[in-house]
Amino acid sequence: MNTDINTPSTPLISLLEHGTDGVIILDENKSITFISKSIASMLGYESVDSLNDDLACLFNPGEFKSFELQLSLCYESQLSKESLGEYVFKSIYNDQVWVELSLKYLLNDSQINSVIIAVKNITNNKLIQKELLHANKLYAFISQVNQAIVRIQDEEVLFQEACRIAVEFGDFKMAWIGIPEVGTRNISLIASHGATKDELKLFGNYTYDTGGPIENVINGQNYRVIEDINKENSEAWERIASKQKYNSAMVLAIKKFGQLVAILSIYSPETGFFNTNEVKLLREATADICFALEILEDKKNRKISDEKRELAEVALLESNKRYELISRATSDAIWDWDLIKETLYVAEGFEILFGYESREVPVSDCLWSANVHPDEQQSVIDSLDQVVASNELIWQAQYRFKKSNGQFATVKDTGYVIRDQQGRAVRMVGAMRDITAAIEGERTLAELNKNLQAYTNELVSTNTGLQQFSYIISHNLRSPVANIVALTEYLRDETNTPETNLELQEALSTSVNLLNGVIEDLTSILAVKNKVSDKMEEISLRGLLSDIQVSIQNLINDSQAIINVEITGDDTIYSLKSYLHSVFINLISNSIKYAQTDKNPIIQISIDAKGDFYHITFRDNGMGIDLEKKKDEVFGLYKRFHENIRGKGMGLFMVKTQLETLGGTISIQSEVNVGTEFKILLPIDI
User: Fold this and answer.
1) What would the 3-class secondary structure string for 193-228 be?
2) Is 523 part of any domain?
3) In this structure, which of 16, 531, 625, 646 has its CB flanked by the most CB atoms within 10 Å?
């Protein structure tokens, strides 16, 4: 390697070594004379000396030939090129490193006399794009499953549609549903999609393995994940894996009223494909299918009882949890455009990034198009219409979007088109990313490196997830609405008998009441989250507890509860009385409500002022909670732990929310059939 240009005294080298991007300098023979340290670091090498002088050795196999052609054209034309394209370099660990290359032809410059190649590492951007595309596909998958459940009225059609959706809208290569015959250990195939003729023949005499995934599910497991099919001790599995390149799979139980009726198997070409989010999503989709089977069975038998309607409502509240995965995968502003209904739904990310509230709006009054910069509005809309009208699945655009404060943010928008069986676009889901900071960074870097046309790494801001509250409320508002829409459609059926219409009207009334209850819950929770600094007052904790005991004296007497209060030191706090009253009465009422049937409830309350905080403990001898299984759900919204006792699952959620609003914290220790202890840390003066 020529070292003349590589001396520390060379000003150009000093500039190149301090650049954020990598640089390769070539002479007139296309030989390397300089490689910046950032490239060695990018590829995992400790120093430039570890790199080979051969330019081809930097590239992943198969990539160099295309680059070499572009390089030769630049040498022949003696012209610079802002983009030579995207390529894959090979790291010391044989990992793929995605780069974007540009070229400055300066052989005719007497001072430089070189060809300078700028190397920008775009690996993170590629991974984020892949993650976002995958998240969009998963969102489309669960959305399509829920649409099919509302639309389809036949079990076999539902099974076939579920397999089709798994392959066409998820990242799965093949899916099948079969009925296991325990006596013969055979599988009777009833639906499939993506299976070859040879695989379909295999089911003619397929016998599932002893101790294998299918038997695990038959024996009671809800699902079984096969991380690597090639490691399964089964000739049938190995034969399928080697021939069709299925490397991982998941087997799920399809149940009707708690009884196994079929097995769903889904295959992926990727080893270890089924991560925690995948498993959650597929389990929820399968639960939705199980719920639909029960509804179809009820309709078939014309025996829709009040108890089954209640089960249906609970199942609907648990279905369509489509935003959880995306909120964990990206912090972007998620949107959902229904082309049939001509409505656009924007999620909470719009409020976080741009200041607009999440809501559903008519396309004719669309907050999105109205806020695209006037200079770019028509071109953006035209590009979107073009993708919708074509057979393409991905739409991307970069434009300026007006925020609620009147300022414009530069955004990168990516959408995924969902099409029906005829190829017609029916829905589009996507995400907007605010790249304003990245654009400004690139402009600043361009000014500092005018001669080298340097680039800056894009600033990518990711958020681990949207708050549990917004996700559950979004889901719980949609589920009763979806049920109301479906019941309204059934009521339009002119062939219905008066008895059928009466049953449907009762179900509709129940769904409306459920929706009203969710809205009331939302109003209560939002009220808690408002600022409360103007409502503070000096409160005696001893007096507050005494007032509460008087107000629930009948409940205390009926349950024969014993409440012991121990206060050390001062008991005066400057806080919001209504919130503390709500917290204390919730915890006391819960201790009485969830008492053991053979024991009178004993509630120990201790309050101790230490420094700037009150340490408050509520301890009881009640039924307790299994924290090994439920620890992460204790303070969740709509989470209940004792099915035999009525409740909405809002109490502990409200307790935690109110305490956090007051600047406090709460923790729990509990043991089944021993009791529960809540520890509260609350500032004396907020």
Assistant:
1) ECCCHHHHHHCCCCECCCCCHHHHHHCCCCEEEECC
2) no
3) 16
Question: Is the whole model's pTM more than 0.85, yes or no?
Answer: no
Half-sphere exposure of residue 85, counting CA atoms within 13 Å on the CB side?
12
Of the three residues 85, 104, 121, the one that is the final residue of a domain is 121
Question: Could you tell me how far CA 506 lies from the centroid of its own chain?
Answer: 35
Question: According to the model, what pLDDT value does residue 448 have?
Answer: 59
* In the block, residue with structure tokens 């910069």: 373
562-568/602-610 β-pairing? parallel
Domain range for 394 is 331-461
pLDDT tier, 99 (very low <50, low <70, confident <90, very high otherwise): very high
The answer on 298 and 189 residing in a single domain is yes
Question: Cα 424 to chain center, whole Å?
Answer: 27
Lowest mean pLDDT of 51-65, 122-136, 323-337, 585-599, name the range. Answer: 323-337
Tokens representing residue 435 in the block:
């790249």
Claim to verify: residue 250 and residue 182 sit in the same structural domain: yes
Contacts from 43-50 at CB under 8 Å and sequence distance 24+? 43/89, 43/90, 43/91, 43/92, 43/97, 44/91, 44/92, 44/93, 44/95, 45/92, 50/92
Which CATH number fits the domain that encloses residue 284? 3.30.450.40
Q: Determine the length of the chain.
A: 686
* 556-603 confidence digits (pLDDT tens): 888 899 999 999 988 999 988 888 998 998 899 889 988 998 999 999
